[in-house]
Amino acid sequence: MQSTSMDPFIVLVICLSCLILLFLWNQSYVKGKLPPGPTPLPIVGNILQINTKNISKSRSKLAEDYGPVFTVYFGMKPTVVLHGYEAVKEALVDQSEEFSGRGSMPVFDKVSQGLGIVFSNGERWKQTQRFSLTVLRNMGMGKNTIEDRIQEEALCLVEALRKTNASPCDPTLLLGCAPCNVICSVVFHCCFEYSDEKLLTLLNYLDENMKIASTAWIALYNALPFLIHYLPGSHNALFNNIAGQQKFILEKIKEHQESLDLNNPRDFIDYFLIKMEKEKHNKQSEFTMDNLITTIWDLFSTGTETTSTTLRYGLLLLLKHPEVTGKVQEEIDRVIGRHRSPCMQDRSRMPYTDAVVHEIQRYIDLVPNNVPHATTRDVKFREYLIPKGTAILLSLTSVLHDDKEFPNPEQFDPGHFLDASDNFKKSDYFMAFSAGKRVCVGEGLARMELFLLLTNILQHFTLKPLVDPKDIDTTPPASGITSVPPFYELCFIPV
C-alpha cells in the first residue's frame, strides 16, 4: 500500500507535537499558575470543543464549568478568558497597565506587522496612540468642527436615501458612505460623491472583510496559522482586499508628499509627515512610512466599518420594533421639529433616542470578545499568576448581556438605559467601546455619528420593512471577531 511510507512521518509529527505541548505546558506551570480550563489536545488545543460559529455561547458554557477566569488553548497557546463584569473591569480598569498589551491575531498580524494603533505593542503603540489622539483632537474630534462635518454628511446621506425613491434597497453601501467620508476628511482631507467608484470599491473591501473575519475559517487560521496560511481559502481574499486598501492609502500619501506645507497641516497624513521630517535623524523613530500606512489603515477601517455596521444593524432592529421607532420619531418632532438639522446639544433633551442608540450597541454586541489583549508583565490576578505575554480574551458579551444589570438581556429594550422617570440612565456595564488604556480611539467620533446619522434618517423617513416585523430575524449569521447583521432590504419612505 502507498500510505505506509507516510506513516513514520505522521508518527514523527505527532511525537514532535506532544513534545512541543509538554514544553509549553511546563513553561506555563514553571512561570505561572494559570487558571483552570478544559484539557487541550495536542496541536489543536481546545479548538474542537469550541463552537467557532458562536464563540460567545461556548465561552458562557465554559464559564459555568470553570468560573469567571479560565484558560483555553487555541492551537498551542494558552489564552486566559475573563467572563463577567467584575473580572473584565478588574483587568481593563483596575489593572489597566498590566493588561494593556495587544494579543496576537495572526490573520491581522500578517498585515500589520506590529505597526499602527490596533495591533502594536510597547513603546511603538504608546507613541502612535498618543500622537494619533493629539492630532485627532487638534482636528476637532469631539469639538464643533467635526460635528459640522458629520451634519454635512448626514444631509448627503438623506439626499442619497431620497434617491432610492421609496423602493426596496439594501442599505449597506449607503450607510457606509457617510462614516467613510467623515474619516476620509480627517485623514485624507477629501471626501467622495456617493456614486464614486473608488469609494464603492473601498466600501466593498471593508464589507467583504468584515464578513470573512467573522467566519469559522478565520478562527481556524488564528489558531493554526502555520498550517492554514498555505492552504487555499478566504484568508487569501482578505489579504487581497487589504492590499487594495493599502495601495489606495499609499497613493494618497504620495499626493500629500508632493503638496506638503510644513507650516500648514491639512489632515492626519500631513501631521504624520511633518513628524517624520522632524525625526528623520532619529534611527529609533516610530514615525516611519510603514507605520503611517498601517495607522491610516487602522483609522480608516475601524472608523468606517464599525459605525456603518452598527447603523445597519440598528435600522434592522428599528424595523423589527416599529413601536420603538415611533417613540424616537415623536421625540425628534417634539425636540427638533422638521426644519432644522439635529445637533449634539439635542441629545441631552432626547433621553429616549439616546437610550435607543445605547441599546442598539448593547444588543448587537459588535465585538463580542474584544480584540485580544496580552499581559505586559507577570500579573497576579485573583489567585492566579499569569505570565507576561499571555493572551487575554475579555468577553464583552458577558458584560453587555449581564442579566442583573440588563433584565432580559436577549430582548431589545431601550428601557435598559432609562430610569423610573424615563431619564437617560448611564451604566458602567456599557463597554461597547471596550475600556481602560486600549479603549477605542474613535469613541467620541463614533458616538457623535451614531446619534446624528440615526436622528437625521428618522427625521426624514419612515422605515418600511418588506416582511411582517414579527418575521424579521435579527440573529447574526456568524459571530466571530465581529457580529454582522443578516442581509435585509427596506424602503425609505419620505416623511
Span from first to last CA? 75 Å
Q: What Rg is obtained from the alpha carbons, in whole angstroms?
A: 24 Å
Q: Beta-strand percentage? A: 5-15%
SS content category: alpha+beta
Order of helices and strands: HHEEHEHHHHHHHHHHHHEEEEHHEE
Helix content: 40-55%
Largest sheet: 5 strands, mixed
**What's the pLDDT, averaged over the residues?**
90
- The poorly predicted ranges are 1-5, 27-31
Spatial sequence of strands, sheet with the most strands = 1-2-7-4-3
Please report the total strand number as a whole number. Answer: 9
* Mass-distribution shape: globular
What is the tally of helical segments?
17
Entry summary:
This protein has 495 residues and is α+β, with helices and mostly antiparallel strands.
Question: What labels would you give this structure?
Answer:
495 residues; alpha+beta; five-stranded mixed beta sheet; two-stranded antiparallel ribbon; 17 helices; 51% helix
Description:
The protein has 495 residues and is of the alpha+beta class. The chain is built from 17 helices and nine strands. It has helices spanning 7-31, 55-66, 85-94, 106-112, 122-138, 144-162, 172-187, 197-213, 216-223, 225-228, 234-258, 268-278, 289-320, 322-335, 351-364, 397-400, 443-460, and strands spanning 69-74, 77-83, 101-102, 373-374, 379-381, 384-386, 391-395, 461-465, 490-494. α6 packs parallel to α17, α11 packs across α13 (289-320) and α13 packs parallel to α17. The longest helix is centred in the middle third of the chain and has 32 residues, at 289-320. The termini are far apart. Mean pLDDT is 90; it is low at 1-5 and 27-31.
